[in-house]
Amino acid sequence: MLPEIGGAISLCWEQDPVKRYKSTEDLLTLLSKDRELNIGNHDGAVRFLDQTNYYRFTGYSRYFQVAPHEGDNSYVEGASFEQIVDLMAADDELRIRLLVPLSELELTLRTRFARISGDIWGNKAFYLDSSNYIPSVHDLDKRIEALRSELTNNKSKMVNKYRSPGGEVDNVPVWVAIEALSFGKISWMLESLKNQSLREQISHEYSYPTKTFSSVVQSLSALRNLCAHHGQIWNRPLKSQCPSPLNKRERPRDIQFNQLSIFPALLALEKLVCGSAGKSQLATVRRRLSISNQHTDGILRPQAIR
Predict the structure, then answer these.
(1) Quick check: helix, strand or coil at residue 72?
(2) How many CA atoms lie within 13 A of 201 on its CB side?
(3) Do 176 and 147 form a contact (C-beta atoms < 8 A)?
(4) Average pLDDT estimate for 61-80
(5) pTM for this structure?
(6) CA 297, CA 305: separation in Å to the nearest integer?
(7) Name one Pfam family in it (predicted).
(8) Would you say residue 6 has pLDDT above 50?
(9) pLDDT-based confidence at 238, cuts 50/70/90?
(10) d(C-alpha 243, C-alpha 199), whole Å
(11) pLDDT digits (tens, 9 = 90+) for 135-167
(12) According to the model, what pLDDT value does residue 17 have?
């Protein structure tokens, strides 16, 4: 039987072989010789790929290939390595600029959430009680357990102060938990808690409509994570779609955008951020997006992921 088993394994290996390791020179040969991508500065390309993961590069370069989703990875005529690198640099700059206002919003939201929810529930760990949430919330028990787990795994002094002798975190007040939980979990709590007064009071402090506020925060949380973890923004629809804060009359006439783009989230961010540093960065982003170029087009009107 062993030879048969060995033969079966060998057959599977041939059908789905593991790709062998390629050096930087191998990868550049693949790009230039096999896939016909123009590389104007070979030494510069070597330096770039020595510092930037090849698969980060190919995430952008797929939009310059003939039909990668159908297996044709050859590049369209005129596409160049340097052109793709320039797009990646523009995306890097955009992420860095957006992190300033997103961070400002996150910090003020954490503060207001803790203060207002403390006024409503006091020092009880209400956020770990399922009765405080909308019953129809998907996977409610798992979500609450995820909150508990994140606090349990947090070893900071501020959480340890309220941990029971057995290590339980059921007495951690919200003003402590709010600094230990991720922004994504806080945005989920904001949307899922059934106390409408919490959303009304927080959104009122931002002078923002309560009806769409929690959905906007969810979208901005997704955008914040994308920026913080160096994710690709160019030609990527925002997974958590942001309701536009503007009606048709208020929309900027010089910028045409797809509703699935990050632009509605940027418009909402402009209304929510109060800090001068955040406003300055958003003003620069808006000016950049008013100039038509390849990066701007992919931000405002993202293509389907190839």
Answers:
(1) strand
(2) 15
(3) no
(4) 94
(5) 0.88
(6) 15
(7) Abi_2
(8) no
(9) confident
(10) 16
(11) 999 999 999 999 999 999 999 999 999 999 999
(12) 60
Judge contact between 54 and 46, C-beta under 8 A. no
Distance, CA of 96 to CA of 149 (rounded, Å): 30
Residue type, 290: S
- Please report the DSSP string for 138-170 in residue order: TTHHHHHHHHHHHHHT---HHHHTT--TT---T
Helix (H, G, I), strand (E, B) or coil at 61: helix
- In degrees, rounded to 5, the angle at the alpha carbon of residue 147 between the alpha carbons of residues 128 and 163 is 70
Cβ-Cβ contacts under 8 Å for 218 (sequence gap 6 or more): 187, 188, 191, 240
Q: For the segment 85-138, what is each residue's pLDDT rounded down to a tens digit?
A: 999 999 999 999 999 999 999 999 999 999 999 999 999 999 999 999 999 999
Amino acid, res. 151: L
- C-alpha span between 49 and 27 (Å, rounded): 9
Give the separation between CA 39 and CA 168, rounded to whole angstroms: 58
Are 298 and 235 a contacting pair, CB within 8 Å? yes
DSSP-H helix ranges across the chain: 2-15, 24-29, 42-51, 54-61, 81-121, 140-152, 157-160, 174-180, 183-192, 196-205, 210-228, 263-272, 276-289, 294-300
Amino acid symbol at 272: L
